[in-house]
Amino acid sequence: MKTIVVGTDGSAGANAAVEFAAREAVAHKAKLRVVASWEVPPVVMVSPEMAADLFTAIQEEAQAIAAESVNAAKAVEPGLVVEEVVSEGHAGQVLVEESRHADLVVVGRRGRGGFAELLLGSVSQHVMHHAACPVVIVPPVKKD
């Protein structure tokens, strides 16, 4: 195995996926590519003056999430080779594109979406059905 991709959005599910992916990368002597994506929701109506600021704020949040996930992966496995990718686009589509250059994609079962009762989130379902490599969907960590 050469490259493992893990999607992150800063949620508890994504954090569990990052931890799992870091351990898998070390076990298989692979590099880990931590991927965060961002997009401005099409329903957001802002003035042209506000649009640039909103665009920048959303991108910066994705960059911060990616950096936190990289640090978390290195905390789990200090010798791990980690790449950080922050890309504009829908998370599922970005991860499917990343899967074309990966041996494994890891995602959390539930992210930041609003329908917690669903078994799988929309991103994990999209990746599961469209990825070009095997996909691991990591369940959330149960707290006692």
Keywords:
single chain, about 140 residues, Rossmann fold
Give a brief outline of the structure.
The protein is of the alpha/beta class and 144 residues long. It has helices at 12-27, 48-76, 91-99, 122-130; strands spanning 3-7, 31-38, 82-88, 104-108, 135-138.
What does this structure look like?
It is a single chain. The chain has 144 residues and is an alpha/beta fold. It has a single domain, classed as HUPs (Rossmann fold). The protein is 44% helix and 20% strand. The chain contains four helices and five strands; from the N terminus they run βαβαβαβαβ. It has a five-stranded parallel β-sheet with strand order 3-2-1-4-5, with helices on both faces. Helix 3 runs parallel beside helix 4 (122-130). The longest helix is centred in the middle third of the chain and has 29 residues, at 48-76.
Topology:
Elements: E1 3-7, H1 12-27, E2 31-38, H2 48-76, E3 82-88, H3 91-99, E4 104-108, H4 122-130, E5 135-138
Parallel strand pairs: 1-2, 1-4, 2-3, 4-5
Helix pairs in contact: 1-2, 3-4
- The global form is globular
Q: How does the helix and strand content classify structurally? A: alpha/beta
| Proportion of residues in extended strands | 15-25%
Number of helices in the DSSP assignment: 4
Largest sheet: 5 strands, parallel
Give the uncertain stretches in residue-range form: 112-119
Radius of gyration: 15 Å
Named CATH architecture: 3-Layer(aba) Sandwich
**Assembly state (oligomeric):** single chain
Give helix and strand order, one letter per element, not per position: EHEHEHEHE
User: Could you state the CATH homologous superfamily?
Assistant: HUPs
Distance between the termini: 34 Å
Domains counted in the coordinates: how many?
1
